[in-house]
Amino acid sequence: MSSSEVDPALVTALKRLRLGRIAATLRERLLLAEKQSMGHEEMLLMLLTDEIARREASATESRVRDAGLDPNMRLELWDKTAKVSFDKRLLGGFTSLRFLEEHKHIVILGSVGVGKTFLANALGHLACQHGYSVRFLRADAMLRRLRQSRLDNSRDAEMVALTTVDLLILDDFALEAMSKEESRDVYQLFLERTGHASMIVTSNRDTAEWLAMFDDVLLAQSAVDRFKNAAFDFIVEGESYRPRLKPKLDESNTAAPVPARSKPPTHPRNKRR
């Protein structure tokens, strides 16, 4: 048997060890090893490196899916021609994820449509790629979940999930006034996460305007003060980014129009008399 051929017994053994994905590319890897005159250790390292890369990619996909991130909102997909401005040096610092290690927050502020949600998602993707757990929620959806959790006595479990994830991303925070219960929920969330785990919050309102959105002034002052003094301010200004997210027809892959079916000629004998 040639060294480039795969022994069925080896494939069976790999599958029993849950290394079946190595078997899928094993023949090609054996050919490469033979071509490059690799030693046994070098070839084994190549196979195991492939498997590690596959498992890490699979784990990242799982974390992204669990986080609820938009798969199309990643930094490499950001349209650099967009007419928006922000501190690129600050964004570069965020991509190092040092803010996560230091349990700092990021508040992304700007008018409607400038790309706040996109940038928050993009940082979430980076965190997932580096093994952090992430959860992305619209602020109103989070408050609604907490409100509903009170009905089935699952609020404590829901709050634990919100306070223990490595990175919590709240989108469109402080769009509208909060009720007394919602104000307490946000206060508890900000209190328990500040200094312990990071948050990214996007908002159309400056943090000073958040105070008026709370039902209780004292809770508002305490919650907002804790948050903003542990947060980086990231301001995004410019034209709306949303038109760049509109679906476009890929003309290069457009199928040719289907020609209209011509009506078959009627045989003289079939004509009605």
UniProtKB/TrEMBL annotation:
SMART domains: AAA (SM00382)
InterPro entries reported in the protein's UniProt record: AAA+_ATPase (IPR003593), DNAC/IstB-like (IPR028350), IstB_ATP-bd (IPR002611), P-loop_NTPase (IPR027417)
Biased composition (Basic residues): 264-273
Gene Ontology biological process terms in this record: DNA replication
Span list, region Disordered: 246-273
GO function terms (MF aspect): ATP binding
Cited SUPFAM superfamilies: P-loop containing nucleoside triphosphate hydrolases (SSF52540)
Superkingdom of the source species: Bacteria
Record domain AAA+ ATPase: where: 102-225
Name of the protein in its database record: AAA+ ATPase domain-containing protein
